[in-house]
Amino acid sequence: MKAIILAGGSGTRLYPVTLVINKHFLPIYNKPMIYYPLSLVMLLGIKDVIFVVNPSDLNTFKSMFGDGSKLGMNIQYVIQNKPNGLAEGLILAEDFIKDDTVCYILGDNIFFGHDIVKIMKQAKEEVEKNGGAYVFGYYVKDPERFGVVEFDEEGNVISIEEKPKKPKSNYAIVGLYFYDKEAVEIAKNVKPSNRGELEITSVNEEYLKKGKLKVKLLGRGFAWFDAGTHDSFLEAGEFVATIEKRTGLMIGCIEEIAYKNGWITKDQLLELAKPLKKTDYGKYLLEIAGE
């Protein structure tokens, strides 16, 4: 399985902060927002990642991650000239995905919870083995902001609707999707919505029509942040700060994950920590290395 991280867009909901900087570089507590979705992909054991980025941000992303080799990964980039909808990310990454299955995650989504990696790995293995699509629902107070999933009494999915004015449930589809190799072709056939965008909800609806969509609800033990608004951005930072201070462990530390995955050596980890040694982040990496 390969991964697509959508990190384009203009971040209008965070204006004026994002007038001069891409929101994915803004700090969620002590590290860039983009570290969190990348870290989840890494925890799933996925080494091949492509970032979908704005033309103006390409060099900054390359400066931050390069080709991924310093993390023992293969990182590539593809340009999205305009924010034409989430489904476009699948089309743009076609040459990268080829005939592989894909984990598609939004660059401003942050996940945390007991067994979150175990649950995501089960979804990954399900799609790799049996195909189809696997997505996740989360209870929210403002479902009109999201793609909303409706269930029957037996828990079967009846419908999915993008940003409905009258939501049929309070369960939002979070920004993490697992798809088989059919996803690109499905995305190519999606027609623009009333907003003029290629909606990822339309891709999920097509899988639903084929009887190949699985939805798992993430309950009370999980935290999900769509950090695209000022309030959710602040909440995410406060949440990460609280967890890290109480546990002494970092969330979203990509160097630590690469090391524990066996993708980089201790010497490579120390080399990554060297320019950061005066910061708490760098000191944490040195602790991980046993220095």
From TrEMBL:
The keyword Thylakoid does not apply. Residues 2-241 form the Nucleotidyl transferase domain. It holds the Pfam family NTP_transferase. Coiled coil: none annotated. Its EC number is 2.7.7.24. InterPro entries: G1P_thy_trans_s, NTP_transferase_dom, Nucleotide-diphossugar_trans. It catalyses: dTTP + alpha-D-glucose 1-phosphate + H(+) = dTDP-alpha-D-glucose + diphosphate. Keywords: Magnesium, Metal-binding, Nucleotidyltransferase, Transferase. The keyword Nucleotidyltransferase applies. Its cofactor is Mg(2+). Belongs to the glucose-1-phosphate thymidylyltransferase family. PANTHER family: GLUCOSE-1-PHOSPHATE THYMIDYLYLTRANSFERASE, GLUCOSE-1-PHOSPHATE THYMIDYLYLTRANSFERASE 1. This is Glucose-1-phosphate thymidylyltransferase. The gene is rfbA.
